[in-house]
Design a protein that fits this description.
Largest sheet of chain B: 5 strands, parallel
Helix content of chain B: 40-55%
CATH superfamily of one domain in chain B: Methylmalonyl-CoA mutase
CATH class of one domain in chain B: Alpha Beta
Strand order of the largest sheet of chain A: 2-1-3-4-5
Low-confidence stretches of chain B: 1-5
Strand content of chain A: 15-25%
CATH architecture of one domain in chain B: Alpha-Beta Barrel
Number of strands of chain A: 5
CATH topology of one domain in chain B: TIM Barrel
Structural class of chain B: alpha/beta
Distance between the termini of chain B: 52 Å
Oligomer: heterodimer
Distance between the termini of chain A: 29 Å
Strand content of chain B: 5-15%
Number of strands of chain B: 12
Number of helices of chain A: 5
Low-confidence stretches of chain A: none
Radius of gyration of chain B: 23 Å
Shape of chain A: globular
Largest interface: A-B, 36 and 43 residues
Strand order of the largest sheet of chain B: 3-12-11-10-9
Largest sheet of chain A: 5 strands, parallel
Shape of chain B: globular
Radius of gyration of chain A: 13 Å
């Protein structure tokens, strides 16, 4: 099986890039191919990069509190391109928001303190499309 | 050895004693709970003393016996009117310092109606677009009688200009304004990543604000040189120490290049450090910072004013040390970190979320009775020396990158991703230690019993504030004199082209014409260009 390809991305104005870089290295050490968008992307630029790079999963890192606005827009932008790439969200996301994010099409949410194996497992599961069949 | 007041050579203790006796104290009879009287400081006659060069033990002879640290509260959310209400509560409760948090669009110099601002307006701080918002923010507050700190970097010159414009419109001359601008752009490229212009062009704006405040705002602190964000981004304590002081040296060289004598601006530089969870390492870091700054200012930069050599700093407890799991444990972490800040001699302190930790430390524990209470501990002294040694190694590397200039070294290090890479490496090392179980985080990788869903009430900012702020902005744009705005922006662009011109007057005039933050930033970006970070993992 070919190695998984993951696009890790920062959308909006949130400059906190410690988490995204740590996750990128964790995934890379687990044998996953990782592409990092850099800061200040829009939902459209992320979707375009994900489709162009033919990735298996998009990993969004959000720590500013704007996830309820921006994360669903990334899902919509991906779908608008006729793609079905799962979007996993990580960062500071209150538990209360998870259900609504899942309903908006986010495949999985990784909270603060998630250990490396959970990060890798969640990304791999999302790549196989398994989150789609759990609840809504 | 210095000379005493009668010309006789006096030992350090006598020099300290004299300075102590000249200090005004906030009380007397400092003693333990059981009534044991306490000296203001302990140590051998010929050792280091607080208030004496190189200030390892504190910048002032009397330290907290004269004045406790300032317990600072950071405020800013929603619209300027919302934050103004909070400011007035703080003042009513006896606060004499306001600390302003801006929202992300403002921090990045974007207006509230910018498409990139979607979902962020008023969320992590207050939204400021024009002078009208600045007026709302400080309505019914006498800016001549309080100090105002503004946590802003890329658009620092713009917000300072708007603040001056607001104060003078309200009848308070700029010379009476007291406060602090964070204005530390170097750490933005290294760690916090709220940059707009390329590094060299940004440094021109820093130079302009330092020169402007040195000449016209004697009570203003032009830069708060910040290690906090470097540490939060993942650096080690020694890297936080060295990158921060290195940036400080870069600003000193920048201002000297602009023709400012070192003692004309250095007394108003201040620092901002993290208080992380490794208690003694943090205390050693603060002690080493004071010693290094004093020595470099005196020996390398030729400062003669003591205040140029005395490092004063603000401390904030480490946001990254807090956990979503078992959130009540965060109170304990914050209290321990705050205690490190106090034992390390901080001048002001911000405790995350809950302020009571500081009140217990200040008023119940008696730890503030004696200056530098850990000075002389074999362990703390050795750790202080080691922090200094590690910092000096890093300074040597920066100096080498800059071929003998710390200013060039800092800029080159940023352009070559050297700082960013080291911070990312250190962050990853810490994460691996956590994943291997070598670093314990209670409630996250050990002692998990008692974990439950978080059910704290969290302040929610609705998109309603965003809508209100956009309406307010379009109202201001409708009512302002458009040709005057265009003229002011035109002049700003012309001034920006000439690197010799100080941009502050043009920014103040543009503020008075109700030009927006975004318009002023875009005008300058037209000349300066924009910084794009090369993404590296």
């Amino acid at each position: 099986m070919a190695a998984l390809r993951v696009l890790v991305a920062k959308v909006g104005l949130d400059g906190h890039d410690r988490g995204v870089k740590v996750v990128a290295r964790l995934l890379r050490d687990a044998g996953i191919e990782v592409i990092y968008t850099g800061l200040f992307q829009t939902p459209e630029t992320v979707a375009a990069a994900a489709v162009d790079e033919d990735v298996d999963v998009i990993g969004l890192s959000m720590l500013s509190g704007a996830h309820m606005t921006l994360a669903p827009l990334v899902v919509q932008a991906v779908r608008a391109r006729g793609a079905d790439i799962p979007v996993v969200l990580g960062g500071i996301v209150p538990n209360q928001d998870v259900e609504e994010l899942r309903a908006a099409g986010i495949a999985a949410v990784l909270g603060p303190g998630a250990p490396a194996d959970e990060v890798v497992r969640t990304i791999s599961t999302a790549a196989r499309g398994e989150h789609r069949h759990q609840g809504v | 050895m210095g000379t005493g007041n009668n010309g006789r050579v006096s030992n350090p203790r006598e020099q300290w004693q004299k300075a102590f006796e000249e200090s005004r104290l906030r009380g007397d009879g400092f003693q333990t709970m059981s009534g044991i009287p306490l000296d203001p400081v302990y140590g051998p006659e010929d050792g280091e003393f607080p208030g004496l060069y190189p200030y390892t033990r504190g910048p002032y002879a009397s330290m907290y016996r004269s004045k406790l640290w300032t317990m600072r509260m950071f405020a800013g959310f929603g619209t300027a009117l919302d934050t103004n209400l909070r400011f007035k509560e703080i003042i009513k409760a006896g606060g004499d310092g306001l600390s302003t948090a801006f929202d992300m669009p403002t921090l990045l110099g974007l207006d509230s109606d910018d498409p990139m601002a979607l979902g962020e307006v008023g969320r992590c701080g207050v939204a400021i677009d024009t002078l009208a918002d600045m007026r709302d923010l400080f309505a019914d507050i006498d800016l001549g009688n309080i100090t105002t700190s503004m946590t802003i970097n890329s658009p620092a010159a713009v917000l300072l200009a708007m603040f001056v414009a607001q104060a003078e419109t309200a009848g308070v001359p700029r010379a009476r304004l007291g406060g602090t601008l964070q204005n530390d752009i170097l750490k933005e490229y290294q760690a916090q990543k709220e940059f707009v212009f390329p590094p060299r062009q940004s440094m021109r704006l820093v130079r302009d604000t330092v020169a402007f405040t040195a000449n016209e705002m004697p009570r203003w602190h032009s830069i708060s040189i910040s290690g906090y964000h470097i540490r939060e981004a993942g650096s080690t304590a020694a890297e936080e120490l060295a990158f921060t002081l290195g940036n400080g040296f870069a600003y000193v060289e920048l201002a000297r290049q602009a023709g400012l004598p070192v003692d004309s601006f250095a007394p108003r530089l201040s620092f901002f450090f993290n208080a992380h969870i490794d208690f003694f390492e943090e205390i050693a870091k603060y002690r080493a910072a004071r010693r290094i700054w004093a020595r470099w200012m005196k020996e390398r930069y030729g400062a003669t004013n003591e205040r140029s050599m005395q490092l004063r700093f603000h401390t904030q407890t480490a946001g990254v040390s807090l956990t979503a799991q078992q959130p009540e444990v965060n109170l304990i972490r914050t209290a321990i970190e705050a205690l490190a800040g106090v034992l390390g001699g901080t001048q002001s302190l911000h405790t995350n979320s809950m302020d009571e930790a500081q009140q217990v430390i200040a008023y119940e524990t008696n730890v503030a009775h004696v200056a530098d209470p850990l000075g002389g501990s074999h362990f703390v002294e050795a750790l202080t020396d080691e922090m200094e040694r590690r910092a000096e190694e890093i300074f040597a590397r920066i100096d080498e990158m800059g071929r003998g200039s710390m200013l060039e070294g800092c800029i080159t290090g940023i352009e070559e991703n050297w700082f960013q890479g080291r911070i990312a490496d250190s962050a990853y090392e810490l994460e691996r230690a956590f994943n291997r179980g070598e670093r314990t985080i209670v409630g996250v990788n050990r002692f998990l019993e008692g974990n439950e869903e978080d059910n704290l009430d969290i302040l929610k900012i609705t998109n309603e504030d965003e809508r209100k702020q956009r309406e307010r902005l379009s109202g201001v744009k409708r009512e302002r004199n458009e040709p005057a705005v265009l003229d002011a922006l035109d002049r700003l662009a012309k001034d920006a082209v000439d690197p010799e011109v100080n941009l502050m007057p043009a920014l103040i005039d543009a503020s008075l014409a109700y030009a927006t933050v975004g318009e002023m930033m875009n005008t300058m970006a037209g000349v300066f260009g924009r910084h794009v970070e090369v993404p590296t993992i």
